[in-house]
Write a structure and sequence with these properties.
Elements: E1 5-9, H1 23-34, E2 38-44, E3 52-55, E4 58-63, H2 79-85, H3 87-111, E5 115-119, H4 120-131, E6 137-141, H5 144-151, H6 156-165, E7 168-171, H7 174-183, E8 189-191, E9 212-216, H8 225-234, E10 240-244, H9 250-259, E11 266-270, H10 277-283, E12 286-289, H11 298-305, E13 310-313, E14 329-331, H12 336-348, H13 353-368, H14 370-388
Parallel strand pairs: 1-2, 1-5, 2-4, 5-6, 6-7, 7-8, 9-10, 9-12, 10-11, 12-13, 13-14
Antiparallel strand pairs: 3-4
Helix pairs in contact: 1-14, 2-3, 3-4, 4-6, 8-12
Length: 389
Amino acid sequence: MSARRILFVTHAYPRHAGDGAGSFLHRLALGLQAGGLTVRVLAPSGPKLPPAESLDGVEIRRFRYAPAGMESLAYTGTMAEQVLGSLSGKGALLGMLTAGTMAVRRMIDEFAPDVVHAHWWFPGGLLALGADRDVPLVTTMHGSDVRLARKVKLVHPLFRRVMARSAAVTAVSSWLAGEARAMAPKTAITVAPMPVDTQLFSAEATPRIPGRFLFVGRLNAQKGVRDLLEALSWAPADITLDIVGEGEDEVALKARARELGLDARITWHGAVARDALPAMYRRSQSVVMPSQHEGLGLVAVEAQLSRTPVIAYRSGGLPDVVDPQWGGRLVPAGDVRALADAMAAMHASAGAVGGWGASARSVMLDRFAPGVVAQGYRALYDRAVAARD
């Protein structure tokens, strides 16, 4: 049997080496190709992006969906805001759905994949559904797509159609799988996470800064930074905080930090290069994730691969990856005092952080190493093809 050919359909994929947009998909593609499969990626165009290129041996094709300068829906994580906030955004989405469906048809005819793997049921799964080609479809839900479906009931019929058309459906966490099953009870959903860069996020020895805690993520309501500021104001005064990220709430959050008298205890780093993150994880006593409805929590995985324990809200997919058995601490979502108490307890247990971190890294390697994840998806593709045959 010849090597399987897999077509990824996605709205997020690295535009260049080091780009974080959909970087986990690139790791999956590389893992699959290392195992003998051939992967091609179909994604929307964007500013200054060529229609075709190769990244580390993975072939990428991009489709135009709007005039130059207006193709801004993909790669930035702001698609929903653009579509809901403006007529031009709605027009761009219509163009993406129309042009994307035709692009999937052309790519199936040209590439002849054994499996189409749609990432995010919306828009990727919808594009594959509209293409109407007799190729097994695997659909993976990553988080934002499920939150959209839960929030906008008008899309439920489309969601169920994509689920029904899929030969296999995966979600990156058990919470996401449960949320999806609530909308499509007849759908069998496999929990299958995305791979993490286990070489970049290494166990290299780095001196920890006593009392230094870290937040990494977008500065918006869903990530819970306001709760973290309130918790810091209750936590011991020798706890300090690095905040990495940008977002729409940045100005308001900095103002709130000043109101709470926290300026001297917080360093706002803004966006940092991805290769700078591992050292920041390793020098921190703990990473704090007060997110709600997180699809999985890749930051938690990266931190624990770097041997740094995590404090998180018991929400979304975070309980899948944060566990007291390997030093993590979970507190009720929205309970700021419990979050502050967990930070204080972690600070008081500084001597145990190294041992917890080693245990956490071992667990993360077993679950998120690219080769492990790719092997699981290869088996899933085989089952999808066998079910059609």
